[in-house]
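Summary: Need help interpreting a holo structure output

Steps to reproduce:
1. Submit the protein chain below together with the SMILES for pyridoxal-5'-phosphate.
2. Request a joint structure prediction with the ligand placed.
3. Inspect the structure token block that comes back.

Expected: a single structure record containing both the chain and the bound molecule.
Actual: see attached output.

Input attached:
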Amino acid sequence: MRKYAEMTREERQTEYAAVKAAYESQRAKGLKLNMARGKPGKEQLKLVMEMGTILQTEEDYIDDGLDSRNYGTVDGMPAARRLFADILGCRPEQCFVGGNASLQLMFDTISKAYVNGLLHSEKPWSKLEKVKWICPVPGYDRHFKVTENFGFEMISVPMTATGPDMDMVEELIRDPAVKGMWNVPKYSNPTGIVYSDETIQRLASMKPAAPDFMLIWDNAYCIHEFACEFQPFGDILSLCEKYGNADMIYEYASTSKITFPGAGVSVMATSEANLAYLNPLINIRIISYDKINQMRHVKFLRDKENTLALMKRHAAILNPKFQAVLNALDREIAPLEIASYNRPVGGYFVSLDAMPGTARRTLQLCREAGVTMTGAGATFPYGKDPQDSNIRIAPSLPPVEELEQAIAVFCNCLKLSALEKLGL
Ligand SMILES: Cc1ncc(COP(=O)(O)O)c(C=O)c1O
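--- attached output ---
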């Protein structure tokens, strides 16, 4: 296979005709395939079906004398707080166990900052002229939607192989209007990047001008290895505390990719001082979360070790799917030098950078052939990828056979859009 950029116009035209014919025959099949969102597949959901019936006796609902069947304890069942503390490596007193989505906890914490202010705020953020927010890119579209929703000005910072560009971050935090930063420190969405120790240390020791700066640490994929052994991670709460930043850090995680997405349990881990301040504010909106579901999770997951064993079973299902995607890209795309992509060992995504100016067109072609992908630009604030290049591939949902079909279509779409861009 020849690199497209080295082909003559005539060679490109011949190649285009061949790829177009293959694409048209794929299109004629009337496919309906989806690689859009990081959803576990059916086989993964089957791994945790026991959860539905795990609470059997009355005692199963009770923990430390607290009855999960009734109102009370907005910050969660003690056993659930212990479980998440075990997984995250912090203390149970630092864990607020909430409802079925960590995104909701993130949104809510920011909404408290907006309406009431945080522990160290001079005033609620809604009373400020401008709030700015640091967004490593490419990043998680739903994070960006949250900060866009509050009208914050989002500032993109490029991701490097070791995490966000820290020189830029350290410069930006000198502005008191910069109030926070999104982070997915392990198997970042979508790049799969794991922040290096140095990056983590620089973040934990920052001295932002804003006294109420929020370092959001979305540890959504903290135990989600699929192609390697579990990689231990340090406790960000104690690291921040060490640098006098105990109240700056807000860590989040959930069981969305461990048990049932949308029916799991979420956690916010932060300083006890922050929790003492936030609990009564959260309590205005809700009396208590679904503690029965918390107890189901405690009984089923038990502890970190047992949860890691479950993650290995998820990995056995996920890994072949990721390898199917990577094999197709290695075979069909890499030799043409029309895209670069990461090789994640954990998380839920493959991030691909197509030739600048071709992402939107590639995804349009996919759509027309019945393959749904995350929209172009979604991985950037305001949905605008300045290069029109980044594409997020989510291989987890379809069975391998369907995935192979979908990725074959995707490869042809990448080729067609690259050839069109290079000129026919
Ligand atoms: C980085 C990240 N955070 C949070 C979530 C959503 O988690 P939850 O279901 O707990 O809201 C996702 C889901 O894809 C994610 O990728």
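--- end attachment ---

Reviewer comment: The chain has 13 helices and 15 strands. The longest helix spans residues 304-332.
Status: needs-info
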